[in-house]
Amino acid sequence: MTSFLEQVERNSIQEAVVEHMRAMLSMEYYQDEFDLVIIDTPPQTSALTASAARAATHLLIPTEMQEDSVAGMADMAQLWQAENQVRDTNKLQLIGILATKYDPQSAAQRKTMEQLIQNEVLGDKLINPPMRYLQTYANSSSTFANPRSLFEMHENTPARNEAEQFCKVIFERIFQ
C-alpha cells in the first residue's frame, strides 16, 4: 500500500512540475512582455522537457542524422504526440524536424535521412534542405567566439545565409 501511495505522490509532483512552466508563461506579465519565448531542452524525456512541451504552442526538433540522435528525436516526437493526447484544444504544432550537421558524403547519414523521409508520421515534417555541417557553426558556438553569433558575421558568410534561411522557414511555419 505504501508504494502505491508513494507512486501517486510522485506522479502528482511530476504533474505539478510539468504544469508549472505553462502556468507561469500564461501569466499576464509574460503575455504582455513577450511575443515569442524559445525554450531549448535536451532531446530526452524528463519533467523539464515535458514542462516545456506543455507550455509550448510549437515544437521544432533538431537532430543529427546519427542513430543516437534520431533515437532522441523519436523520443521528442513521442512527447509531441503524448502532449496532444492530453490537449482538447490548441494542439502542440510540430513545425518541423531540422537535420543538422548533415554530411551528404556520409552513406550512413544519407541512409538515416532516407529512412526518416519514408516515415509515415514524420517524413513530411523534415525541413529541406538539411543544415550542412560547416565549421563556422562550431566556431560560432564556442565560449570565446568572435563574432559571438552567426548573425554578426558578414552577410555573405555561407553559414549565416543558411541559418537565416532556416529562421525564415521556421518563422513562416509558426506565423503562417
TrEMBL record:
Domain AAA intervals: 26-89
Pfam families in UniProt: AAA_31 (PF13614)
Superkingdom to which the source organism belongs: Bacteria
Family matches, as SUPFAM superfamilies: P-loop containing nucleoside triphosphate hydrolases
Gene3D superfamilies: P-loop containing nucleotide triphosphate hydrolases
InterPro entries named among the record's database cross-references: AAA_dom (IPR025669), DNA_Partitioning_ATPase (IPR050678), P-loop_NTPase (IPR027417)
PANTHER family noted in UniProt: COBYRINIC ACID AC-DIAMIDE SYNTHASE (PTHR13696:SF99), P-LOOP CONTAINING NUCLEOSIDE TRIPHOSPHATE HYDROLASE (PTHR13696)
Name under which the protein is recorded: AAA domain-containing protein
